[in-house]
Amino acid sequence: MPDIQGKHVLVTGGAGFIGSHLCDALLEKGAGKVVCVDNFFLGKMENIEDALKSDRFQLYRDDARNFGVMQAVMEKEDIEVVFNLATIALNYSFFNPLDAYMVNVSLANTLMELMKSGAFKTLIHTSSSEAYGTAKYSPMDENHPIDPTTPYAAGKAAADLMIQSFMKVLDIDAAIVRPFNNYGPRQNAEGPLAGIIPATAIRIKDGGRPIVNGDGEQTRDFLYVKDTVWGLIMAYEQEASRGQVINLGSGKDISMNSLLRGICDYMGYTGEWEHREERTSDVKKLCADIRKARRLLGFEPQMTYEDGIIETLDWYKGVL
Ligand SMILES: NC(=O)c1ccc[n+]([C@@H]2O[C@H](COP(=O)([O-])OP(=O)(O)OC[C@H]3O[C@@H](n4cnc5c(N)ncnc54)[C@H](O)[C@@H]3O)[C@@H](O)[C@H]2O)c1
Against a cut of 0.70, is the pTM above it? Predict the structure, then answer.
């Protein structure tokens, strides 16, 4: 069983929300080197403040799509394992659909070419539950049909297919992990690409109103970010993951109305909500079947939603 301890690991998108928590966890677990490649499209230096204090952490402000750059970094840092987390958030699909799609495909393309050339040994690739589209049955297992409703999700699905096909023809050492919605400290809180939880917390704090699209009955499965990070590391350490697609979620879904009500209650907001038109591309229902993660990885979410949302909102109250 491979152990992350002592390994030289590269994280694409390591200055982002999930990636920065992953870098921290890898350092804590004794990885020999943690190399972050992030072009800071949405990454933030404050996310990696703690990691930067370690002499086992190295930051490259670069584009992970660039084969030459990545090849040079991998050679210099003697990389064995890559966690691919770089992306541009789903909402980018509404502003620049082609780029939202292409970034996911190009990242996978570059990593597959690098693997083929022997630049590193193992890839843990981060896909997304959005690749499934709206639930045709629930909870959704990994055999659920792929039916993306946004270019972001189509890019994720295409990247998964590319990696799966490379796994078949080249016998490469890789696993695909499909997280459902994540929440926790450090999620992007600003602008049109902000996550729903931080965006709502900020609106309320700034005297604005929570925004709900459509009837608010669309559901998502929220997993605390540190549980996702644990699942990603387990996906490396448990070789049963290789060649597989594995969901990571809580196994329970919650409607946007319940989510917003909870945030309002905790923040003492009793005013009106702003109701906006339903976005036709919005997935209606997402709920993970996590039996495969339990079986192959020994994965079990540690944080309850009730505790996690309080910890998250307290964190946002502190930093915003
Ligand atoms: N947040 C969620 O709810 C969620 C759910 C399912 C899957 N995921 C997946 O998890 C991964 C991490 O998501 P996140 O929420 O942390 O996103 P994020 O936007 O916070 O982080 C992505 C990081 O990638 C960087 N980046 C973008 N393009 C890059 C490029 N070409 N080269 C180098 N860096 C680049 C950004 O600057 C950012 O720091 C993504 O692959 C995402 O699709 C996230």
Answer: yes
Mutate to test the pocket of ligand 1, among 85, 114, 193, 226 (most ligand atoms within 8 A of CB): 85
The 3-state DSSP class for residue 149 equals coil
- Identify the CATH assignment for 8-183+223-251+287-302 out of 3.90.950.20, 1.10.3720.10, 3.40.50.720, 3.30.360.10: 3.40.50.720
Contact criterion met (CB below 8 Å) for 41 and 14: no
CA pair distance 22, 27, nearest whole angstrom: 9
Task: List all residues whose CB is within 6 A of at least one atom of ligand 1.
Answer: 12-13, 15-19, 37-43, 63-65, 85-89, 103, 126, 128-129, 179, 181-182, 188
How far is residue 230's CA from residue 205's CA, in Å, rounded to a whole number? 31
pLDDT in tens, 41-65: 999 999 999 999 999 999 999 999 9
